[in-house]
Fold this sequence. Notes:
- It is a single chain.
- The protein has helices spanning 52-59, 62-65, 87-93, 110-120, 125-138, 154-168, 184-199, 235-239, 243-249, 311-319, 361-368, 374-383, 399-413, 429-444, 456-462, 484-491; strands at 10-20, 29-37, 41-46, 70-77, 80-81, 94-97, 172-176, 203-207, 220-225, 228-233, 271-282, 285-296, 300-304, 326-331, 334-335, 345-348, 417-421, 448-452, 465-471, 474-479.
- It is built from 16 helices and 20 strands.
- The strands form 4 sheets. Strands 6-7-8-3-9-10 form a 6-stranded mixed β-sheet, sandwiched between helices. A 6-stranded mixed β-sheet has the order 16-17-18-13-19-20, sandwiched between helices.
- By secondary structure, the protein is α/β, with parallel strands linked by helices.
- α5 crosses α6 (154-168).
- The longest helix is centred in the middle third of the chain and has 16 residues, at 184-199.
Amino acid sequence: MMENDQIRRTVLRFEDVSFRYAGAETESIRRIDLDVKEGEFLVLTGGSGCGKTTLTRLINGLGEQFYDGTLKGRVTLLGRSISEYPLYEIGKKVGSVFQDPKSQFFASVTEDEIAFGCENYGVPYEELDGRVSNAIRRINGAMLRGKEIYPMSSGEKQKIAVASVNAVDPEIYVFDEPSANLDMASVEALKNLMGELKAEGHTIVVAEHRLYYLTELADRFLYMENGTQKEEWTPGELLSMTEAKRRELGIRAADLRRIEPEIFSPAEKKVTLEGKELAFSYRRHPVFQGLSFQACAGDRIAVVGQNGVGKTTLSKILYGIQKEKSGRILYYGKEIPRGKRKNFAYFVMQNTDCQLFGDSVEGELLLNGKGSTGAQREELLKLYGLLAYRDRHPATLSGGQKQRLTLAVSDWIDTPVLILDEPTSGLDFKNMVNISEHLKSLAQKGKTILMITHDYEFAAMTCNRVLHFMDEDHAEAFPLQGNLSRLYSCLMGR
């Protein structure tokens, strides 16, 4: 409980609130009663589909006015029913940073996007430049000035989304999975920015799976399950929670120092994939050069490095959807041209919408697993926790559910090499553990797995080796056994 909580005004109130999306058979949240005070920092957590994103959409008005859902009960924003506000007015009071940042962009260049909201709300021209510059400073985004947004990494796009909201300077901030696409150094910067916003008196609501960076900021954590409020904790209560209870609830670690994984390396060392002296440039700007590495059957390699250093670009080259400037790609010792690489590797992209084409979850499997039986598809959907959604359209799934569906599809494709770009983006703890165990079982059968990740918890429990992009000229590889602190330093950009 916050100090002087009883004298702080309520800025957000949920009174017996239930909400059903248009076309949905069941309510996403049920009987929610919640008061959020001025200046409070509230974290919403719980498994995928528990209702935390729906709560954020009711706070910013999108639930009713964009998703055309049905609201029961009453949501009050600054003493007035949320239903009475036009969306543009809510936007001045509630700034939203979405899990998929590109969905909120309107301009193509950094400064134009950050200025866009201010221009729409009539901020005087002489004040505009100062707001944009200050917002860029707060995200440590000097290197993003003047750049086109489209080719940026997901983490860089997330920074632009935060800056564009910050420039408008709303009273309330709502973040939906803000760390999902960020490296750990950027998460630390996000934490510092959130701390500044809290110190300035802003009210902050964060829906999040990753909890470790929020324990010093949050006033309370609200745990949700199946659309209802289940438990509430102070940061101290969360940090003192037993590991057994944390795992039972299915929430991520609140203290990364308590992670003690068992790391197994493959017995055989059969080289399946090699990159030799690879180089790539984007519009004459070098991304990496002189990159060489090897991967063996059974390896689970964490591909790490700060946003924008070329990890995703390398993955696209290995899969054949991007062409290297120079260098060679070898599978099983033989150089493979770009057009044939998809026969050896499958790439699960971070933007899952790019890979989902079916009209239902099971239909997606049918597109990629021709000849499969109903029993086989049911078994696979059970494995990925998607059986209950087999008839749902992929577009209606949560981010974590879409991620699991693309991973299920990769099982059907079954190439010797599997490349995953941020596989835990949007995943709760239970599904992260399930996918970690499944990837390890695939590796035991001889598959080579490369995982681009900023997620220390996932990398520590899943991988046996690390490929660290240090800068455009340097990359290093090392075993994870005995090197957890080194992995942590790499992920922090130290």
